[in-house]
Amino acid sequence: MSIMERGVYAAQIDLDPDEGMFRGRILNIRDVVTFYGRSVADLEREFDRSIATYLAVCEEKGIEPEKPFSGQFIVRTSPELHRAATIAAAKAGTSLNAWVENILASLGGTQLLSVASAPAPKTTKSTKGRAARTARVRRSA
Predict the structure, then answer these.
(1) Whether the predicted model's global pTM rises above the 0.70 cut
(2) Which of 3, 44, 120, 135 has the fewest CB atoms inside 10 Å of its own CB, making it the most exposed?
(3) Quick check: 120 and 3 in contact, CB under 8 A?
(4) What is the pLDDT confidence band of residue 49, given thresholds at 50, 70 and 90?
(5) Which phi and psi (to 5°) does residue 135 adopt?
(6) What is d(CA 109, CA 21) in angstroms, rounded to the nearest whole number?
(7) In this structure, how many other beta carbons lie within 10 angstroms of the beta carbon of residue 37?
């Protein structure tokens, strides 16, 4: 798995053995936006086309495109850890959300940001399979 980024959008890239091609899927939106390519150049081109298609479909339907990252995420944990974190936040005089954000920042927030912005490892090019296909956009329920 690799990650490819374009503006605010990030896509997970995997090999689709059934298609004999690389498959990309835009992350962290409910709408399903996928694209295919045989090489990195194909993937880059098709990712750009997929974003453009997604935005055009949203405009055509009169809906707002989803923002990929809202700043919110759900963390599932044990009740004991939830309790301990809530008590620690109260002792620190802050909300649980602010406490978790501070912990993430202190334990690697800067490292997380640098990892997210680092270039992805090089992907080997595949010359087999069908020609790259245009974006597939499907609205999820």
Answers:
(1) no
(2) 120
(3) yes
(4) very high
(5) -60, 145
(6) 34
(7) 24
